[in-house]
């Protein structure tokens, strides 16, 4: 059977495209890589669960702050240099984290890792689009494939390497990123992405002036409390070993990837974005309440994690699509402003969950997270008039969907 021209062009890409796509897989693996080794780090480094959860907090806090300036940086030094600097930072900080001897040092090093990942992820899509053969559509498919593979494989690789040592996932990431760095250095010779100069103050001005953008950002903070309670705290009540945790969050990652890439666009083609957001947030709140009730049953908690992944994939994409349509600002400015705020919820949630559990038991973090997510659904419902332009276009172009996916999953 002969292949269609579209299929052929999709597979026959310049080497630079494959190099960036490979690096993107590794970068997205970092989202869930440390999940399976959190209990081991806590036990072997004599760290409390709250200290271990700060591995997420430092990473997400710096990622969010970096999102405010990544467009400004790439507009001045170019996409290629931004990519290489981002990869180089991840290599250095991941390797140092693997060699660290105490949890506080690792927490600081994860912050540097977050800076590198923010620089790389925010630039990778535009680079692939600029270098790919066969048009933007093929570039987007490749990027979505890299995203899905990274999100799903990260926890599984973390679990497999975590069986050897809690240090192994850090060293493994550093080695893979070093390979990606060399590949980009050799294969991405020219800067194929045009430089767009964005004022440094642009994201700050956007949050100050755009009421709809502010409302979505506040809702996303509440939503991310649920997201990262489920992702970052659940390894502790599950009580699994590294490989079992890796398999659990592999299922979570597959769910996120499938619904973000395929299900979310189908829903927004038929229903208002605000309706999809409000209903899915309510369902996630119910899932978190189910996790609170089932926290003593590992099998039931695994089911809640996987179901949560399916819901989170929809929310990640639709939230950022909504941000893209909420304002007349350039998409890079809107996404930077939104992402910088939304990560605050992700940064606060992991240590807050551990502290709540120490006060009253493992059920309380999920209950508080469910309340926060439900509050987010109420905010969306109450903001329908303010967000009217978000619902003005039901169908979204593939390019916008890809931008939404890349920004929504940059954590």
Overview in brief:
About 80% of the residues lie in helices and about 0% in strands.
Give a verbal description of the structure.
This protein is mainly alpha-helical and 411 residues long. It has a single domain, classed as MFS general substrate transporter like domains (Growth Hormone, Chain: A, Up-down Bundle), CATH 1.20.1250. Helices cover 80% and strands 0% of the residues. The protein contains 18 helices and no strands. α2 (15-29) packs antiparallel against α9 and α13 (242-270) packs across α15. The longest helix has 30 residues, at 331-360. It comes from Demequina lignilytica. One of its GO terms (molecular function) is transmembrane transporter activity.
The CATH homologous superfamily = MFS general substrate transporter like domains
Order of H and E elements: HHHHHHHHHHHHHHHHHH
CATH topology: Growth Hormone, Chain: A
Q: In what range is the share of β-strand residues? A: under 5%
Poorly predicted ranges: 1-8, 394-408
What is the overall silhouette? globular
Taken together, the total number of domains comes to 1
What is the count of helical runs?
18
Q: Roughly what percent helix?
A: over 70%
- What is the CATH architecture annotation? Up-down Bundle
Major beta-sheet overview: none
Secondary structure: number of strands: 0
Any idea what the radius of gyration is? 20 Å
Structural class: mainly alpha
- Measure the end-to-end span: 41 Å
Protein name: MFS transporter
Keywords: Membrane, Transmembrane, Transmembrane helix
Main location: membrane
Membrane topology: Multi-pass membrane protein
């Amino acid at each position: 059977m002969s292949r269609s021209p579209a299929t052929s062009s999709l597979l026959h890409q310049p080497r630079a495209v494959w190099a960036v796509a490979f690096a993107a897989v590794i970068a997205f693996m970092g989202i869930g890589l440390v999940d399976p080794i959190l209990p081991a780090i806590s036990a072997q480094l004599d760290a409390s669960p709250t200290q271990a959860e700060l591995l997420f907090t430092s990473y997400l806090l710096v990622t969010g702050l970096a999102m405010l300036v990544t467009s400004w940086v790439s507009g001045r030094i170019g996409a290629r240099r931004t990519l290489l600097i981002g990869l180089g930072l991840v290599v250095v900080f991941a390797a140092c984290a693997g060699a660290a001897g105490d949890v506080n040092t690792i927490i600081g090093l994860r912050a540097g890792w977050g800076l590198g990942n923010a620089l790389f992820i925010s630039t990778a899509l535009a680079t692939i689009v600029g270098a790919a053969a066969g048009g933007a559509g093929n570039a987007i498919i490749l990027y979505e494939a890299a995203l899905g593979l990274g999100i799903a494989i990260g926890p599984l690789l973390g679990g497999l390497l975590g069986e050897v040592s809690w240090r192994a996932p850090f060293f493994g990431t550093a080695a893979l990123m070093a390979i990606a760095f060399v590949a980009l250095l050799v294969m991405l010779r020219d800067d194929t992405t045009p430089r767009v100069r964005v004022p440094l103050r642009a994201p700050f001005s956007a949050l100050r002036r755009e009421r709809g953008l502010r409302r979505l950002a506040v809702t996303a903070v509440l939503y991310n409390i649920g997201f990262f309670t489920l992702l970052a705290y659940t390894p502790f009540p599950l009580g699994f070993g590294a490989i079992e945790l890796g398999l659990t969050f592999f299922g979570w990652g597959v769910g996120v990837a499938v619904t973000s890439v395929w299900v979310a666009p189908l829903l927004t083609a038929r229903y208002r974005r605000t309706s999809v957001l409000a209903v899915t947030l309510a369902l996630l709140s119910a899932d978190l309440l189910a996790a609170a009730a089932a926290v003593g049953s590992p099998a039931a908690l695994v089911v809640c994690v996987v179901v949560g992944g399916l819901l989170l994939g929809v929310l990640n994409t639709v939230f950022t699509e909504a941000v893209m349509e909420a304002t007349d600002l350039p998409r890079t400015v809107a996404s930077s402003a939104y992402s910088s705020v939304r990560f605050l919820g992700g940064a606060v949630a992991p240590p807050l969950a551990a502290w709540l559990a120490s006060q009253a038991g493992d059920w309380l973090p999920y209950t508080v997270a469910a309340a926060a997510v439900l509050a987010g659904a109420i905010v969306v419902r109450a903001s329908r008039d303010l967000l009217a332009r978000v619902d003005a276009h039901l169908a979204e172009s593939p390019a916008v969907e890809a931008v939404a996916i890349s920004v929504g999953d940059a954590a």
